[in-house]
Amino acid sequence: MENMKKVEIIIESVYINRLLDLFKNYEINGYTIIRDIEGCGGHGLRTADEVTDVFSNNYIFTVCTDSKFEEIKEEIRAFTKKYGGKCIVSDSMMLL
Question: Which InterPro entries match (predicted)?
Answer without folding.
Answer: N-reg_PII, N-reg_PII-like_a/b, N-reg_PII/ATP_PRibTrfase_C
